[in-house]
Amino acid sequence: MQIAVVFHSGYGHTARQAHAVAEGVEQSGHAKALIVDVARDIPWDALQASAGMIFGCPTYMGGPSAVFKTFMEASSSRWMKQEWADKLAAGFTTSSSQSGDKLNTLVSLAIFAAQHGMLWVSTGLMPGNNVSTGSVGDINRLGSWIGAMAQANFDQGPDIAPPASDLQTARLLGQRVASTARRFAGP
Amino acid sequence: MQIAVVFHSGYGHTARQAHAVAEGVEQSGHAKALIVDVARDIPWDALQASAGMIFGCPTYMGGPSAVFKTFMEASSSRWMKQEWADKLAAGFTTSSSQSGDKLNTLVSLAIFAAQHGMLWVSTGLMPGNNVSTGSVGDINRLGSWIGAMAQANFDQGPDIAPPASDLQTARLLGQRVASTARRFAGP
Amino acid sequence: MQIAVVFHSGYGHTARQAHAVAEGVEQSGHAKALIVDVARDIPWDALQASAGMIFGCPTYMGGPSAVFKTFMEASSSRWMKQEWADKLAAGFTTSSSQSGDKLNTLVSLAIFAAQHGMLWVSTGLMPGNNVSTGSVGDINRLGSWIGAMAQANFDQGPDIAPPASDLQTARLLGQRVASTARRFAGP
Amino acid sequence: MQIAVVFHSGYGHTARQAHAVAEGVEQSGHAKALIVDVARDIPWDALQASAGMIFGCPTYMGGPSAVFKTFMEASSSRWMKQEWADKLAAGFTTSSSQSGDKLNTLVSLAIFAAQHGMLWVSTGLMPGNNVSTGSVGDINRLGSWIGAMAQANFDQGPDIAPPASDLQTARLLGQRVASTARRFAGP
Q: Which of B38, B147, D95, D164 suits a disulfide with B71, CB 3.0-4.6 Å?
């Protein structure tokens, strides 16, 4: 079974998040990860062969990056035939602010997947960093459920940001999509 | 297998939509429908015993009705334990306008379900009434994918509105959630 | 006083809507309209000289078109300096479905304008086509308030679609932004 | 000139945010603040006499609290007559998570205000806590523009949470709405 991680990254932070999602897919033991950078050629047939797709991009000016949106629009010929119907989908995004309108990106990805007739997988995580003993190191530290969020400081390169907790949150999303796909595929 | 249809209706239009969803669940042959009107006592144990929940309410002033929101908040004790995690979820809404900010209600229901760790089922329907030969009689005539929309004229009672096409759209959502639940449950 | 109508159009339908918005601006008697097609060179200085900007684009796959999103991202250098702060803003969009996830596009435009520190102008119109005597000819026939919606049948060119009612709805938005700008500018 | 701060608070945290907004209104020197707790009787005439309304409530299960939604629905008789048209509006919300789906609450408030024909005022603030030297003490530390966000740790009472930075962010929103109302009212 294969799960595609379909992403765009502007400065490398979302790429790190994407690779963490892919690690989670593989660590699940249920599926292989196909990493697709939408700034390159899109392997449409390989996407079609996937049991699910996890979409991710930076949040720029309050929504999905234009580069990722270009991919979304290129998928409209698949939409016309509902080729992705009943596949699993999930989403992730990075920006430099804690909230930073990232929810609008994730909702936009979920609406996009719904148009394709896909089934949307939530993070399934309790929130972190919401008590006085909380910290940046907590899983799901930003408190997001419709998709995985990461926050990367504006002045830090992708070697440092986003923090380990956000990458682990991304990893858990990958694991969850893979195990859900396994359960969904049946024995 | 049981799918719950959990709804609020102010004037009866959304109740008709809810019953159409429930009919679809049963017509699928895959599941029984449990109809829950949140204005009455909530059968929490029966909800817990369901493989999925289809949430619906009117769109009032741009979002889910306050009565339904009260139910959503009452579910927070279940949320704390993530008791509904991995169940299927879907949504529907009615208002008197064609678009009428209904999307905000459906997105709010999807975000709510994501907080519960549920998996969101889209309508899986191509849009109707989007060509010159289109009409009010078309399935998915309002063009919605993250959930099912119905439009009920302000001056028509629930005996007349919403139109048959919107009820059939609701029925197909019920069928789809039930067949997805069957596939998800395995043999 | 000048109001900019900043738009992208894929097949000409949104261009017609944009020109109707611009007509409304001029018919108000309060302002001149500067029409900016973002697929061409962006006249950044002229935008800066405007009292308000009305943003519009097609809804593609549930959100603002990638071409328009590219403009939104290009504005980030202005955002850094908050050069557009306190200007008026408003939005419009076209798609082939009645609802068609257009609300997500308008919300995305409103969030974008908020990042720029702008003040968002609603349509200020009661809904049409929401009673049994309603029709396609009604103003605000789709029922939208955070911005103006138009619906263009998939099989009709921009000479025919969107219908006159949607263009008049767009015209009224242009008028409203211009008269609000006049009131806001003071005597 | 009077600006109304219309709010609901469940445990006192949003009440603190509301009072900070009101302080900002008064500190502006442009307007008096009318504080309206929607859990009590609504002073509809005093609301009508206000130049603007700043709406706020907790984010519960991903959206505006049901108590506040009840107020929103009670305003529908005013909506029918568009009595609030052209008044200013703005929004704020509190939850225990950093992002915590608060954006959905603020968008829901903005859609509500748009239905009323109001003009929406953004925060007009650059983001804080988005660089390596950032901290909880930064203004707009959560990064929100369509409204003001506050985060209150789950285990801290309203005497301690939300932190001073979030209250100052709220204060600045109050100031901004008041000064915008002054500019809008003319000399």
A: B38
Task: Provide the pLDDT confidence category of residue C127 given band limits of 50, 70 and 90.
Answer: very high
Report D:116-155 residues touching C (Cβ under 8 A).
Answer: 116-126, 145-146
Interface confidence, given as ipTM, is 0.98
The Cα of B111 is separated from the nearest Cα of chain D by a number of Å equal to 6
Average pLDDT over residues B161-185: 97
Distance CA C133, CA A160 (A): 62
Residues C177 and A66: their CA atoms lie apart, in Å, by: 27
**Residue D187 confidence (pLDDT) above 90:** no
Chains touching B (3+ CB pairs < 8 Å)? A, C, D
pLDDT recorded at residue B186: 74
Q: Measure in Å the smallest separation between the Cα of D111 and chain C Cα atoms.
A: 6
pLDDT, tens digit (0-9, with 9 covering 90-100), for B50-106: 999 999 999 999 999 999 999 999 999 999 999 999 999 999 999 999 999 999 999
What are the b/e assignments for B93-121, b being 16+ CB within 10 Å? bbbbbbbbbbbbbbbbbbbbbbbbbbbbb
Return the CATH number at B138.
3.40.50.360
Of C111, C124, C186, which is closest to D117 when you measure between CB atoms? C124
Residues in Cβ contact with C174 at an 8 Å cutoff, skipping those fewer than 6 apart: C3, C5, C20, C21, C22, C23, C24, C25, C26, C27, C28, C33, C54
Pick A187's closest partner by Cβ from B85, B116, B186. B186
Q: What chain B residue is nearest to A85 in terms of C-alpha separation?
A: B124
Give residue C118's domain range: 2-185
With 0.95 as the threshold, say if the pTM is over it. yes
**C149-187 pLDDT, tens per residue?**
999 999 999 999 999 999 999 999 999 999 999 998 876
* Selected residue of D122, D172, D180, D184 to mutate for chain C interface (largest C Cβ count, 10 A): D122
The whole-angstrom distance between A185's CA and the closest CA on chain B is 7
Q: What is the DSSP letter of B3?
A: E
